[in-house]
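Project standup — Tuesday

K.O.: blocked on the structure for the chain from last sprint. Re-posting the sequence here as requested.
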Amino acid sequence: MTKTDPAPMAPPPRGEEEEEEEEDEPVPEAPSPTQERRQKPVVHPSAPAPLPKDYAFTFFDPNDPACQEILFDPKTTIPELFAIVRQWVPQVQHKIDVIGNEILRRGCHVNDRDGLTDMTLLHYACKAGAHGVGDPAAAVRLSQQLLALGADVTLRSRWTNMNALHYAAYFDVPDLVRVLLKGARPRVVNSTCSDFNHGSALHIAASNLCLGAAKCLLEHGANPALRNRKGQVPAEVVPDPMDMSLDKAEAALVAKELRTLLEEAVPLSCTLPKVTLPNYDNVPGNLMLSALGLRLGDRVLLDGQKTGTLRFCGTTEFASGQWVGVELDEPEGKNDGSVGGVRYFI
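H.V.: unblocked you, prediction finished:
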């Protein structure tokens, strides 16, 4: 599958408070490679990519000696380096860590944005992990450096409304997914994007047949039962293999495997209060579960959002009727299986 970027355009207007910040922190016109990094991020103006005089190609090649002279020249500005990074060619994307380091050496704040795309260096690093055009290893190196410097994984491009995890999922870079979620899992793992019907990174991976990214997201706690604006879970946005032409046989196999993976990951959902009667005190819990098609250890979904493992079913000392105990994946309250000093599961 070929992924293409739409033609660049200026991002929507930023908020007044951010505009005031940008006025307080002007972008230096002639940065030095050893310049001290600013304390506040700014938006850099758009600039054309520099090329050597009488150069035979229309794109920048960091492997070419003449281009290297420009790349390492202290007079080459941050906006010009951002313009180089925007070039979607292997020669540039495979050197994302080298170019990114040159941008940082010129005093760029780790959360500075490119004025044309409203993307940060972390966004560009995640794009640069794309197979074919990019190099996942180089992208991971730059991303780790940026995160160590305090890059904000929650920042979104105002043009696409995508954060770094969304880009890593879209371009199917599981190594980047792991790096991004290592220190920020609760904040971003299920964050949604309006450009994908308010779907999560798992929806994005599913709709683009990104099997590696989808597996990695599930391993790191992505919710396979989360619904997008259309009411679809990730498994439901996987392209239908039956709609693919014969020359897409490999993609059809991926689609089948991905759909199965996502369907099996969805916790069993059962609204127990609607089928449990309050006068079943003498019915053993295991029989009650069996009648409902459940058993201890099953994965379940509560309130359409919270996932967990079924640990207990039976009568309790605090109320009549049959009760169930669920160990939540993300603890709330005690979450230790006890009520009123009585422990019902460990």
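K.O.: great, moving the ticket to review. Residues 268-343 form a domain with the SH3 type barrels. fold (CATH 2.30.30.190). Residues 249-265 form the longest helix (17 residues).
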